[in-house]
Amino acid sequence: MHAADQIDVELDDGMTVMVKQKPRDIPATRMGVGACLWEGELLLAAYLAAQPRHRYIGQRAVELGSGPGLAGLMLAMLGAQVVITDKDVVLPLIQENIELNGLPSTPGTSKHCGGSAMAEELEWGREGYMGRVAALASTPVDLVLAADVTYVDQDGQSPSTEHFVQTCKGLCGPQTVCLVSFELRSSQVKEVFLRESGREFSRVERLSKSALPKCYQVEHIELYKLQAVEAPSSQQLLELGERVRAEVPVLHQLVHGHDLVYLDNAATSQKPRAVLDAMNAYYEEYNSNVHRGVHSLSARATDAYEAARHKVAAFVNAATDREIVFTRNASEAINLVAYTWGLNNLKAGDEIILSVAEHHSNLVPWQLVAERTGAVLKHIGLTAQQELDVEQLKSMVNSRTKLISLPHVSNTLGCVLDVPAVVAAARSVGAKVLLDACQSVPHMPVDVQTLGADWIVASSHKMMGPTGIGFLWGRYDLLESMPPWMGGGEMIQDVFLDHSTYAAPPMRFEAGTPAIAEAIGLGAACDYLSSIGMDTVHAYEDDIGTYLYNQLAAVPKVTIYGPPPTAPRGRAALAAFNVEGLHATDVSTLLDNAGVAVRSGHHCTQPLHRFLGVPASARASCSVYTTRADVDAFIAALKDTIAFFEEVGSM
């Protein structure tokens, strides 16, 4: 890249960014190479280009140590307001590239979705540099970009790396995302970067390059995402449940003359007003089909539908929106994988490892696939603490193991899977990993790029969104390799009388008119949960879940299934339980008479209940709107229920 004075970089949609570089005219202090385009900058630009254009419209971004400024220029052409920074000697080159691409310095006056760019001096480590950082951060920054800005100085060290990380932190608010891309020139520099980033940021994540073109999937360049998420105060956590509860209409009603206490959230969650309003707005203001018309209503509906896909992708930190496939629910998402990847990759004698705790939706599809392919199903059991036995799994994997499909969080036991250990075991034999994330995505931060699985599935209705829609996330290279499983409109590329060619993912798997309003509602649910912050949601539910467990455990004759909250990975905010001498349905019926809604039955985990030696259980499960008052009302009603049966002699 050092040879040409000007390089034209084409985006996937035909947009071209023109970049001039001056490696000889602007020499670096130690490296001997000046303002030129490095591979890390190209990879960062490719990552930005892989996102849908609307993602960055109106966002404010700062690029650090930009050199020619490719990533910042590209972001501005995608609609962001970008400040491109470097040493003062590089600013004329940056300004030349800004003008070369026709970008104004004022937002909203550009043909490029209102994007703008301006060049400003910033050199970290220089005296007074944090004052300049504070000035840049005086207006909230959505995105910080940095590529190849940490180099080896004398003796293999990089003292500038510490100043660089401090600069990133100074620019970041609680919602800011910092993307850092660099070539692995020195293990010492990487160690310093990770150490300092770990000190300054609450999240340091290495991003996958699997969704990028093959030429960018190189081992010697790494891409990181840094975020400084603020922990909520104890007072904020205390108030959160009541605040969210006030925004959920269905919770404000009487049931049998009692205030509703809704503790059936593992079955389905209630919906905030924001989700209901988003769906109503679609039907009342721009109801139209998507991807099929050029008129204004269709364009608006299409934008809203694809914006929802983007919101889901961002919610689980997918590398690209193209990794999100909308389905009817998580059951359909698992069936999609089973009938595309499964039927095309499994053969007689291959092994699929599941558990005794599977929801039927992650069991029956694989039974059907095994019947058709001759594959063999294996099942891991539980530990003494009633967690999934990962040590048993490690002993079961072998060269015949092709898939491990397990719940991230059990809907009955509440146990949290040791995902890193499962992924490591799978990778040791080349097996794939699918996670049923229905009980984790609504309740804790889930980052698909750090989990290491190949697919995850989730349902909208469990995450404060509408029924009728869920999603599959899959690594894009895997999705590309999977054939269609339903035919119809929209999933095609070209149709002839005797054959058809098919669209790329995700459209390949979304035949026919989709659930448009439901997708928009799911997007609104992602917005709503994100506005609270999934770290905050998890902290709140960890507290309310522990309170539920402890209060329930103190009730005589009650058995709770699953590990205690003190387990290494904790437990979810749910409790499946039985009362000695009583059937779960009888308990749940009397609780309903007191206005308390809990689940009774086998919770779509019949094999697990057989394993536990019980026909059924009752289950109380929390959400972010569950309060301690709800738990107290449940416990009081449960004690009254037990007292009633004792009085009539039914125990």
From TrEMBL:
Its keywords, alphabetically, are: Lyase, Pyridoxal phosphate, Transferase
Aminotransferase class V domain: from which residue to which, for each copy?
261-634
Give the protein's recorded name.
cysteine desulfurase
Among Pfam families, the record links this protein to: Aminotran_5, Methyltransf_16
Highest taxon above the source species: Eukaryota
Q: Name one GO biological process term.
A: cysteine metabolic process
Q: What does the record give as the reaction this protein catalyses?
A: (sulfur carrier)-H + L-cysteine = (sulfur carrier)-SH + L-alanine
What cofactors are annotated for this protein?
Answer: pyridoxal 5'-phosphate
GO molecular function terms listed in the Swiss-Prot or TrEMBL record? cysteine desulfurase activity; lyase activity; pyridoxal phosphate binding
How would you classify this enzyme at the top EC level? Answer: transferase
Catalytic activity, EC: 2.8.1.7
Query: Cross-referenced CDD domains, in alphabetical order?
Result: SufS_like (cd06453)
